[in-house]
UniProtKB/TrEMBL annotation:
<dbReference type="GO" id="GO:0005794">
    <property type="term" value="C:Golgi apparatus"/>
</dbReference>
<dbReference type="GO" id="GO:0016020">
    <property type="term" value="C:membrane"/>
</dbReference>
<dbReference type="GO" id="GO:0046872">
    <property type="term" value="F:metal ion binding"/>
</dbReference>
<dbReference type="GO" id="GO:0042285">
    <property type="term" value="F:xylosyltransferase activity"/>
</dbReference>
<keyword id="KW-0812">Transmembrane</keyword>
<protein>
    <submittedName>
        <fullName>LARG2 glucuronyltransferase</fullName>
    </submittedName>
</protein>
<dbReference type="Pfam" id="PF13896">
    <property type="entry name" value="Glyco_transf_49"/>
</dbReference>
<keyword id="KW-0472">Membrane</keyword>
<keyword id="KW-0808">Transferase</keyword>
<dbReference type="GO" id="GO:0015020">
    <property type="term" value="F:glucuronosyltransferase activity"/>
</dbReference>
<keyword id="KW-0735">Signal-anchor</keyword>
<dbReference type="GO" id="GO:0035269">
    <property type="term" value="P:protein O-linked glycosylation via mannose"/>
</dbReference>
<keyword id="KW-0325">Glycoprotein</keyword>
<keyword id="KW-0479">Metal-binding</keyword>
<keyword id="KW-0328">Glycosyltransferase</keyword>
<keyword id="KW-1133">Transmembrane helix</keyword>
<dbReference type="InterPro" id="IPR051292">
    <property type="entry name" value="Xyl/GlcA_transferase"/>
</dbReference>
Length: 187
């Protein structure tokens, strides 16, 4: 409730039109098909403590959202900066003129990860909003995630695209892009 207005206010207060920043909206999830949506952060925290909500994908893919630093978010009252980490794929609000999603990554796999890497390479600040949140509701698996899980060929193609993406980052950003390749190889 009120997320749209909060985002508009945050965009103005943080001078997003004049600043290279990505505003992170922390993501949570429920395993229930019905949910009384929390009307406030305090309500959300209560639901989190009771176990009816979880930080997004914590049990399947914690690396995707862990850099949001949910422990800090619980008590934050002002936006705070987080650092890029491998496989980080938060939901963000950015300026229209930010880098676009790489069209190689359609379907399932690496669309948000590559986008955040590109933003980081261009020195965007990654700012977590203290009073924003979204909740993912359960749904049937997509056709594309099923292909990813069942097809070695799909996973192999995705790996090839990831390697091409790293090469492109290296060409565009030089030595600054080495951290992405190093992080990828250490996983």
């Amino acid at each position: 409730y009120g997320l749209y207005d909060y985002l508009r206010t945050s965009i103005q207060q943080l001078e997003l039109p004049q600043r290279k920043a990505a505003l992170i909206v922390p993501a949570f999830e429920t395993l229930h098909y019905r949910l009384t949506f929390p009307k406030s952060k305090a309500e959300l925290l209560s639901m989190l403590d009771m176990g009816s909500l979880y930080t997004f994908r914590y049990h399947v893919w914690p690396k995707g959202h862990a850099p949001t630093d949910y422990a800090k978010w619980r008590t934050a009252t002002v936006p705070y900066r987080v650092a890029w980490q491998p496989d980080f794929e938060p939901y963000v609000v950015v300026r229209r003129d930010c880098p676009r999603y790489d069209q190689r990554f359609v379907g399932f796999g690496w669309n948000k990860v590559s986008h955040i890497m590109e933003l980081d390479a261009q020195e965007y600040e990654l700012l977590v909003l203290p009073n924003a949140f979204m909740i993912h509701m359960p749904h049937a698996p997509s056709f594309d995630i099923s292909k990813f899980r069942l097809s070695a060929g799909y996973r192999s193609c995705l790996q090839t695209l990831r390697e091409e993406f790293h090469q492109d980052l290296s060409r565009r950003y030089g030595a600054a892009a080495l951290k992405y390749l190093t992080a990828e190889r250490s996983l």
